[in-house]
């Protein structure tokens, strides 16, 4: 039996991937994710210094990435570092930018 190309009864399977793509759909968030792929972990101050945008703006974008499960935090004393939490995102970003652009 051949599966239909489109199945209106199975649209729920697209919710989570669509939400991941939605969370990535901003240039700053894509830049943050690619930067985390290169550096592996990073704090907000470092991102703010590199991107030269307000810390509050970066924090807002990081919150959206956290809510989508794309990044998570790692605390060491007072310092909070962000790391990628979902390996699938690395594959998506590599497909968009090429593997060489995503390596340190």
Automatic annotation (TrEMBL):
Look up the domain of life of the source. Bacteria
PROSITE patterns given for it? Answer: HTH_ARSR_2
Please indicate if the UniProt record lists Transcription regulation as a keyword.
yes
Query: What SUPFAM superfamilies does the record tag this protein with?
Result: Winged helix' DNA-binding domain (SSF46785)
Q: Which UniProt keywords apply?
A: DNA-binding, Transcription, Transcription regulation
Q: Does the keyword Electron transport feature in the UniProt annotation?
A: no
Every copy of the HTH arsR-type domain together lies at 11-104
The entry's protein name is Helix-turn-helix transcriptional regulator
């Amino acid at each position: 039996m051949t599966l239909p190309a489109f199945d209106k009864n199975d649209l729920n399977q697209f919710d989570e991937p669509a939400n991941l793509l939605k969370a990535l759909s901003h240039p700053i968030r894509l830049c943050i994710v690619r930067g985390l792929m290169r550096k592996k972990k990073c704090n907000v101050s470092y991102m703010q210094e590199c991107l030269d945008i307000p810390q509050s703006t970066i924090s807002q974008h990081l919150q959206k990435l956290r809510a989508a499960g794309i990044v998570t935090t790692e605390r060491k004393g007072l310092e909070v570092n962000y790391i990628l939490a979902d390996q699938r995102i690395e594959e998506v970003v590599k497909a968009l930018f090429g593997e060489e652009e995503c390596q340190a």
